[in-house]
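Incident log, support desk, overnight shift.

02:14 A customer reports that sequence design results differ from what the structure should imply. Their input is reproduced verbatim below. On-call engineer (initials T.W.) acknowledged and began investigating.
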């Protein structure tokens, strides 16, 4: 599943090819994504100049003078730059066609979306409740400490709640908690201020490292087989249940929490 680093890498990969360009057309082959692609979107976008691109959580935002297109990659979505004469494959559900390039969306499981708003985009129902960006300065130890007081949910679940902070998916929550030496099952409200500071630092570190790694795959956003940007990463605990802890070599413990896999070291994490 595309996580925040993949979305950020996607943004950086596609932006240079389409930013400032005029949309010739929107070709929709399959409007039934998680929510239907608005029927009038093609006429909304034709002839409009794409002013800028940005990211909020795992949403890619395409800013036009008349409004904003929101794209989410869902479980299996990807975006890449295709050549104008390149035939579409079976799961290529929409093309945003520019002069010399085509932004092509592929999504076998169709949990992603393409939506439109002409209101201020931060007020959109999908974005308005979102917590701070993990790599922003507002997300600091003090914020996490204040926000977690009285909270009895496990800290991992608390971190993966987009109202707490956006973009900390299962993989990154596992990795950051290991690096911060905090058990995923600890109650959020039981974290000390120092632990909150350490945890924030490690969350930023694992996400930034993944984004930096993704940067090396940027060329894959143009051409290729349409599977861009999802990079193999060196993971310390995620997917390594039963294997040796990279720090103390005891077997890592794997449990299910909230129906997601959690892997941690019973001796290194408190
Ligand atoms: Zn250990």
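02:41 Re-run completed on a clean worker. Output:
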């Amino acid at each position: 599943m595309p996580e925040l680093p993949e979305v950020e890498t996607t943004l950086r990969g596609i932006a240079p090819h389409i930013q400032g360009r005029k949309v010739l057309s929107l070709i929709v082959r399959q409007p039934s994504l998680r929510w239907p692609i608005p029927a009038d979107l093609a006429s909304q976008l034709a002839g409009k100049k794409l002013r800028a691109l940005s990211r909020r959580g795992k949403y890619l935002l395409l800013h036009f003078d008349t409004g904003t297109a929101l794209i989410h990659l869902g479980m299996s979505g990807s975006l890449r730059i295709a050549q104008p004469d390149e035939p579409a494959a079976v799961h290529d559900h929409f093309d945003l066609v520019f002069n010399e390039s085509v932004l092509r969306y592929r999504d076998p499981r169709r949990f992603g979306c393409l939506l439109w708003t002409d209101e201020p985009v931060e007020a959109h129902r999908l974005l308005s409740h979102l917590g701070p960006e993990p790599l922003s300065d507002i997300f600091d130890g003090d914020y996490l400490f204040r926000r977690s007081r009285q909270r009895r949910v496990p800290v991992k679940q608390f971190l993966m709640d987009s109202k707490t902070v956006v973009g900390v998916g299962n993989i990154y929550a596992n990795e950051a908690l290991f690096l911060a030496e905090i058990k995923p099952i600890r109650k959020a409200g039981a974290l000390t201020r120092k632990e909150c500071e350490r945890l924030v630092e490690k969350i930023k570190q694992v996400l930034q490292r993944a984004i930096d790694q993704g940067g090396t795959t940027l060329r894959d956003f143009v051409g290729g087989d349409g599977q861009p940007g999802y990079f193999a990463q060196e993971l310390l605990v995620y997917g390594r249940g039963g294997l040796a802890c990279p720090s103390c070599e005891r077997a890592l413990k794997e449990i299910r929490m909230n129906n997601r896999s959690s892997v941690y070291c019973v001796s290194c994490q408190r």
